[in-house]
Protein 1
Amino acid sequence: MGQIIIQGFLLSGLYALIAVGFTMIFSVGRVLNLAYGVYIMLGGYVYFVAVQMMSLPKVPSFLFAALAGVIFGLLTYQLLVKRLQSDPIAVEIATLILAVVMQAAIIVIFSPSPRSMWPLVPGVIYVYDVAVLKNILLATVVSWVVLGGLMVFVRKTHTGRAIRAVSMDPKGAVISGIDPQRINLITWGLSGALGAIAGVFFATYTQLDPGMWVFPLITAVAVVIVGGIGSIVGSLIAAHIIGFMETITTTLIAAELRGVFTMLLIIFVLVVAPKGLFGKAEL
Amino acid sequence: MCLLPLVVSTGTLRIFIFANFLAIFAMSWDILSGRTGYISFGHPFLIGIAGYTTAMLTYHLGWPLYTTIPIAVVATMIGGTLFFLPALRTRGTYFALVTLAFMEVMYHSMQVVQPKLTGGTRGLSGLPTLVSGAIPNYYLSFLVMFAIGVGLWLLIRTRLGIALDAIRMDEDAVRSSGLNTTRLKLFAFMVSAMVAGIGGALYIHYLGSIAPRGIFEINFLFTILVAALLGGAGSIVGPIIGAFFLTFLLELLRPYIPGAARYLIYGVIALVLYYYAPKGIYSFVELLRIRLTGLSQAKKND
């Protein structure tokens, strides 16, 4: 029982990070980035290459992975999204195609089979008599630190406030002298970084696999649907609901059914309360 | 097209058969997503329902095909509606991901839930085929594709079709003119599910086997989508053109590039093509037609 509570809590932290990285782009650019899962995948693979194939030390590798996410995010925006921005459907499709292309690229470079990654911090620590992998604990701590940093950034810095402005009202932001293109660029880069960071941990939590970009994407969507659009608190709470439910499912029922309850929850929320828990608008 | 089997080899014919089926799936996708703008990533899910229903009924119960196939189609429509109805509450953008979630979860659950019935990870094989041999299958698939194409084309000409197009352009406007958009979407969806069901059931019996991998898969989804999009979403001919174009593109690349890299190149080509022509080949053709035949034709098209 304690196992479930603690594991659930830890997983939820990671999911919160994943969800926030995803919704940033939607709030600011009003487009869905279906290639978001790719940042997660990239983060994992880049870290893998750096640490396990090139034997680089962990911290630089980690930063390197985050950088890969940033670069990929920026490139995606510059090359792909900018031109198609007026048509959100086109962006969705283009990013999906991109994701599939990246999956194919990973298959070509590495191989179709999944790989296990070494944990960032090996070993187990005991929290209230429950055995917890140090790696997962680190993941959660880092997730919360990053989220906290993000909140500070968004509230206190000029750029952060500009991002909020654009997400509230793009036209008003322009009138206030903000350059929406620049903000979009920054947001995409930031989203890439967040995704990549989450990805490094996510990969150690599960496995490296060319198809791993799909599941986090679905999780992020679930968090947004359940928590409601435009609400950070909602996302955090939803991340915990989903994190706990998944942990319960995998521990007590079957590991493969991991996503089933998430999906049922999505359906349930959509039917009963389409605005989500704290949503300000219907999706 | 009818005389094709007389001039090409069996191997090429099989490529055409695949293209025909892809065209059916692409049209089915397009009727919903291309027309209303609600991008569905769950079509493999629908096709899978049809496939598994007919496969399980023939494999375990030995029922004849002319009963299992219609049952499969109905199952697809019912099952699909159950899942998609709540999803329709999400506006366009999240709809895509929710439907993607369905497909992914199906992939995992099909492997685990009741493996004796569904065949688990390996699936079921040795299913009876409707007709055997490349030539009869070609005619069958072509006929079905053609029939569906004509049927859908007639549907689009009705006011229903126009309303669906309008939803893509501006759903709120449609709603404020008094039409019940939910019912319209549902209708589009049921047509889409029906076509997907027909295609799915027939396809499985052409292949003779079914397994989670290959049906509930991103690549399959990707192929259908790209076929419809590159060909020209929102039209009837578009998906058909796209399906053939894509199938032949893949076959063309086969001798030059080994296995995995092929999908990469193919994906990159798709991306580049989509980037420069999001409206697809068909729109390009339309443009040419208008340019060449002058304004009067364009006026007639309005």
Note: Strands of chain A lie at 124-127, 130-133.
Protein 2
Amino acid sequence: MKNFIAKLAMITMIVAFALPGALFASGSSEKATAAKPAASGAKYAIVFKNTGNPYGDKEMGGFKNGIEEQGFTAILRAPDQPTAEAQIQIIQQLIAQKVASICIVANDYDALQPILQQAMNAGIKVLSLDSPVNPASRLTTINQADPAKIGSTLVQAAYDLAGGSGEFAILSATSQAANQNLWIDYMKKDLKDPKYANLKLVKIAYGDDIRDKSVSEAQGLLQSFPNLKVIVAPTTVGIAAAGKVLTDKGLAGKVLLTGLGLPSEMATYIENGVCPYMFLWNPLDVGYLGAYAATALVSGKITGAVGDKFPAGHLGEYTVTKAADGGTEVLLGPPFKFDKSNIEQWKTVY
Amino acid sequence: MSDRVISVDRTWSFRRFILQWEWMLVLIFIAVNIVGSSLSPYYLNGGTFLTAPMGFLDVAFLVLPMTFVMILGSIDISVGSTAALSAVVMAVSFHAGLPMWLAVIVCLAVATACGLLNGILMVAFKELSSVIITLATMIIYRGIAYIILRDQASGEFPKWYSGVGWGYVAGIPIITLAFVVCAIIFGLVLHATSFGRKVYGMGNNLTASRYSGIRTDSVVVIVFTVTGLMAGITALFLTSRMGSTRPNVALGYELTAIAMTVLGGVSTAGGKGRIIGPVLAVFIIGFLNYGLGLVNIPSQVLLIITGLLLVLSVLVLNIRFSRGHQHSAPTASAPAAARKTPNG
Amino acid sequence: MSEKTALGAVARPGSRSTFRFREVGLLAFIIVICIVVQARNHNFLTLSNITDLLANTAILGILAVGMMMVILTRGIDLSIGATVALSGMVSALTVKAVPSISPIVSVGEGMLVGLVVGAIVGIVIARYNVLPIIATLGFMNVFRGLTYLISGGAWVSSYQMSPGFQAISSGSLFGVGNLILIAVVIYAVFGYFINHTKTGRQFYAVGSNPEAADISGLPRRRIVWLAYTIMGTLAGLCGVLWVSKFASAQSDTATGYELTVIAAAVLGGVSINGGTGTVLGLILGTILLGILNNALPLVNVSAFAQQFIQGAVILAAVLTNVIVKRNSRRHALRKRAI
């Protein structure tokens, strides 16, 4: 009898723990989105790649601002592991909740196709953001910057930093990362131009967006290529890791660094000269634009076809254009350059 | 623990029957559903209850053979990599011209071969623990997948293939049906055949089993080979649900499978556990994730809840038994000590 | 059961002349790998590269010490990655809020977080008899979730860390990097503890036969608890070192790192069944993994083959070790047969 009571007590404890925990969490998110209690109740969801990523938090934050400005409810989700499988489960749950729209920052370009098509068949408007899904899985995608432009900006930066000629290497994310691979492809295309004849790409290393691996790969690059002049790292973890390695080895000025990085992470390395300048875009704006695109799709204002125009709050009006992968996209704008002159004000923003 | 004692005849006691771990799991499962349906109106909604399992059942196929492996006292952390490799090989062979049904067979064959290799290594090098062997093969198998597909995805399977993961038969999802069938088969083998008894025997006392004439090597090889096969089935369903595959699929599946298995009452020390436990645990964890996801609980909170559920539930089990068996202090290691092989 | 002596010397009566090093297979394997890598890239065996290698492996080495203690008692700890993340985040957030804090205090703070965490895990395992794999699997999730919650998902970047804090890992004393120094000190202390103190030897006893240990009156529960507490403290220390080394604190720090640490320990001959393992073997296992991480970017192999090579090397190293041990045992038996 005692055992039974003990067991019952424990189960009650478990449930008692889970219940308030669940209610608390959902209550707090409800509270946060209760800014307009008279909201139409339409729910707009954004699914990011993973949790614990301040860049992602900013994108989702921008999305939330955009949705709530228009009087709707925003749902922010992210899996704790950056896998496609986890995102499929989240999307399943969103379909069950009958959301109006899903904005997905994909962990995999193709793997979400079946579930997103199910969502679209259920009447949910699907668009991707930042990291796109394939055209069959989406109505349109929000692209933070033209990938061709990103590629050419990075190649030009490498060229300038190397002084016109020399060796440079790329430190990327995972070998499967869709965005990075696309940008690197454009970089390679640009390198064929006779203007860059003396600029040599010696290696593409994959740091997997893992801090210690990126450090090892960066050190490896320095050891294998003693004449290396520039490291280009189109990923926020990679560029920060390379920045630390170069700083610790005292190579500021000898090997230069550029790429795509978070201003907060790179502030130290821009200030100490290891990284003269780097690029990114404002994730808040990306999310915000996504929010307005989502509401425009749901209201029927646009269908995701080329030429559609829609208003995007304080960002102005945007037009849907043709995307390189056969679908359509909405371009936020050109990549933004961070250097010593503006890093101070941006490092606290994101 | 009381279930571990191999007693020939014991009077059936209702109290002992109802206090089993598996009944506790049933209670937890009911609790999870109550919590889920009270939190969100969408939980018990029409088809969602049936479709929800489609999200977590592909890992479930790994839980069934993992039960066998853990009853043996071993562990297999290479299952995720086996699934990835077999999925990749299937995709590549389909695009190389093989008809899809043949590619499916290739997938299962590759997965079985991976499991077979694990088993052979286990019996050839008995000094090595299963941890290090499957750790090495985990890295190797996925490494091969990376060599094959590099940074590409491979997809565009025939239309009927997506029906494997998403399709229904008489209103029930195919994947659920397949899982139930597999669970029944595994349950029958474990509880109603001599093979199953051999597995239990080996888990309890390997040396005694060997001296009793049980071909322990064959049992180990068979168990690991079947684990490989089931990883291949996981790969089939996973690839069908994603419509494409890459070398980095099924990451972390091994830990999820192990968590579900231990929650189901299968002890890693070996010799204890029943199929019904892990099956219930699969649905508990799956519906818990689903139910809490329907109210958009942040993943980090979900992580904490799942972790606590795992610890608290086993804690309860131990508190319950520490009342009845005061000398059970080293229980966790008792069978392990008993079946310590001469090689240590 | 094979002989277990301090440095792995084969205990045979009247044969002190033959010093048979147990993990000689592993050592030979490491030497072969070094030769192969050096042949492909002459920068491998340079002072700067070796310093990098040692600094990168230091954290792994410190964690491996704790893991060895846990495995010796027949346990396992899957939560150390999360502990590293948690303590790293806590100390980083403290430095961000109070930049004037002394680095020594930060280190102490990290170790305290790790100590508390390890003690909790230890209590659950030692007092309540929860199987280590379940307990640490569960706690891994809990601590990781806690890290996300206390950080609010934000990172702590290098500009928010005081130079003193960053110097914990990147600084050096007498020309030797701090990380390497700390690792050496810890290994020295641990080596002494596990081989030459009563409590240390009791770890082996508890792991190889818990019942006998209990019956002999050894404080089995306390030893097990101690193992996890020490593991937690070391993980807490590594959290601070990690965050200081990379000048960045994230919530997903060291995800999956526990597997690497276990691999290092098991490679070094620590038996998962408890009761066996030497410090020298542990060092070798750690170094092999460190070499792999360091050398793979240096040898010009396709990035896509890296994982396969890693797995193949680990498997080969382990199998070599087993085969050498078998031969040495056969050799020893043959000698006795006379």
Note: Chain C has 13 helices and two strands.
